[in-house]
Amino acid sequence: EVQLVESGGGLVQPGGSLRLSCAASGFTFSSYSMNWVRQAPGKGLEWVSYISSSSSTIYYADSVKGRFTISRDNAKNSLYLQMNSLRDEDTAVYYCARDSGSYYPIGYFDYWGQGTLVTVSS
Amino acid sequence: EIVMTQSPATLSVSPGERATLSCRASQSVSSNLAWYQQKPGQAPRLLIYGASTRATGIPARFSGSGSGTEFTLTISSLQSEDFAVYYCQQYNNWPPNTFGQGTKLEIK
Q1: What would the mean pLDDT of A70-77 be, rounded to a whole number?
Q2: Alpha-carbon gap: B17 to the closest alpha carbon of chain A (Å)
Q3: Closest-CA residue in chain A for B95?
Q4: Is the CB of A115 less than 8 angstroms away from the CB of B43?
Q5: CA quadruple B38, A7, A55, A65: dihedral positive or negative?
Q6: What are residue A117's DSSP bridge partners?
Q7: CB–CB of A113/A25 below 8 Å?
Q8: Closest A-chain CA to B104
């Protein structure tokens, strides 16, 4: 059974930093591209970042470019999101989501974690 | 960036009836369109990909259609567990992978 479990969320002040983790199991993690998608309270879904299976290709949404860094450790079956210079508008539930394509990304997400809440507030 | 627009924002339908949700893309996305269902407090769940292919384990009452810029998600006979928020997402031109703003399907 595919499982994605996020952790690392919490309350942080504006300008602060936080590192999210996503532990993957039930599939060959190193074969799949991964993403972070966020959802502000009461709002819709916003794609945040993408990393290819080998970490060779990385993309960011304009709203987080230069502040967030995505990474992965295939030996540990883990995905990460380092968030710096956090702003009020970064408050959201952050989901890790698997790209549906094995080795070659397709662009839609077939498995999602349960999410971790990040609250940016003074 | 491709903008996805869903309508209506809220749809009220009685159990057992048919629900039709719409999604429009600002430019053609071919058939590279996915639908997700999200219940309160839960993560989104993939329903449809390729505009019309049901994901694993999705009941046959869910069907998708369309191509280019106009898409439809139809739920043929609403069950109590189908009342949720539904999102469309294009993956023809990414990044960014863009979502619609969602349609809330509520009990009438």
Answers
A1: 98
A2: 26
A3: A59
A4: yes
A5: positive
A6: A93
A7: no
A8: A44
